[in-house]
Amino acid sequence: MPAYNKLVRDYIPQIIEQSGKKYTTSNLTIDEYKKELKKKAEEEWSEYKEAKTEHEAVEELADLLEVVYALAALNGATPQQLEHVRQQKADEKGGFNERVFLVEVEDQ
C-alpha cells in the first residue's frame, strides 16, 4: 500500500472508498494542520509553476486558493475578510495589472 502522508481534501477518503480501496487516515492537531497547510501551499504552487496549459494553471490556482482560504480561517479571517484586505491593499498600492518591474531606487 503506497504511503502518502499528506493533507488531502475532505472528500478524498470517500472517493478512495468508492473505488473499492482501503485507506488509513488520522486527524491533525491545529499545529500539525497549520504545518501541513503550509506544505500543501508549496505543493500547489509547484504544481502551478509546472502547469503546461492555461486550464491546468487555473486548476492549480483554484487548489492554491482553497489552501489560502483554510490558512486564512486558521488566522481568524473569512474569505470575505481576506478579499476586503486584498482590496484595501490594491486601493492603496495598486495591483499587478500594469506589469511594473522596479529596477532600482536611487539612495540619497
TrEMBL record:
Which keywords label this protein?
Coiled coil, Hydrolase
CDD domains, per database record:
NTP-PPase_COG4997
User: InterPro entries under this entry?
Assistant: MSMEG_1276-like_NTP-PPase_dom, PRib-ATP_PPHydrolase-like
Q: What is this protein called?
A: Phosphoribosyl-ATP pyrophosphohydrolase
Q: Which organism is it from?
A: Priestia veravalensis
Coiled coil ranges (UniProt) are: 34-68
Q: What Pfam families does this protein map onto?
A: PRA-PH (PF01503)
Question: Does the UniProt entry include the keyword Metal-binding?
Answer: no
User: What's an example of a GO molecular-function annotation for this chain?
Assistant: hydrolase activity
